[in-house]
Design a protein that fits this description.
Length: 264
């Protein structure tokens, strides 16, 4: 019987991201041959892939690809931080970006990616031994920029128009990562949400004269806009001016800010 060393198990684990005991069992079955052991893991994993798909996957990475014509932001998930840092998982993410690059799309392509890459995802689950997900993917046509924070734990992508350089775009993405706005401007907030906000503040001001309430509401809403609207937020580089005033020749058309594993 072939002796399976700790180094051999470690090497297989680094190549596949599979669990230590799974690696040891596969190496025993493959009589110490790493390539055969990888095949063993894949074969046994495919049979278990559907079962694993129900397990919690809250680790992973947000990745991006920016060209002169489009931008892509994708979130790939796994179960453990160990796999999230694995080279094979990183290569899988690059493959997803390459696949999306060939899609003629402008918007959310999550469902399409999962349909097209179903076999590749199953193969990853089989090889690594964890639930692997492509959770969400967007591709935007136009001038885009992205910023990844904490090794891809937080990811931001913006689409812009107007004059800008790489530093300005990066600063805006960093601002969004840090301050987490919900809208570009107050024009993007629905009347229903604004009315709800007014209702809350009006209830807090019960007993005050109607004229006074109206004036106070204006101030309350403006303060709220500075909290939730990118254009109105104090600029990350100079909090004495708003983001829009700090970047007068640049318009952010849309943005997304994702955090790995957050509730949707």
């Amino acid at each position: 019987m072939v002796q399976i060393s700790a180094k051999l198990v470690k090497d297989l684990r680094e190549k596949t991201g599979a669990g230590m005991m799974d690696c040891k069992r596969a190496l025993k079955e493959a009589e110490g041959n790493i390539q055969d052991a990888i095949d063993v893991l894949r074969k046994s994993g495919i049979a278990k892939a559907e079962k694993r798909s129900g397990r919690s996957a809250t680790e992973g990475k947000i990745i991006s690809k920016i060209t002169a014509d489009y931008g892509i932001l994708a979130e790939t998930l796994c179960e453990t931080d160990f796999v999230a840092k694995n080279d094979k998982f990183a290569a899988f993410g690059k493959d997803i970006l390459a696949s999306v690059s060939n899609m003629d799309a402008d918007g959310d392509v999550s469902e399409k990616v999962n349909e097209i890459e179903k076999d590749k995802i199953i193969s990853m689950v089989a090889s690594i031994g964890e639930n692997i997900q492509v959770r969400r993917v967007v591709k935007w046509q136009g001038k885009c920029s992205s910023y990844l924070h904490m090794g891809g734990r937080i990811g931001v992508m913006i689409e812009v128009e107007g004059e800008s350089d790489e530093e300005a775009l990066n600063n805006i993405c960093m601002h969004i990562a840090a301050f987490n706005p919900q809208y570009v401007s107050s024009n993007d907030i629905s009347e229903k949400i604004i009315e709800k906000e007014k209702e809350i503040h009006t209830a807090q001001l019960a007993g005050k004269p109607a004229q006074m309430i109206e004036k106070i509401l204006v101030g309350k809403l403006n303060k709220w806009y500075k909290e939730v609207c990118l254009n109105d937020q104090p600029w990350i580089r100079d909090d004495k001016v708003s983001t829009s005033k700090a970047n007068p020749n640049l318009t952010v058309k849309r943005f997304v800010r994702w955090q790995v594993g957050e509730e949707l």
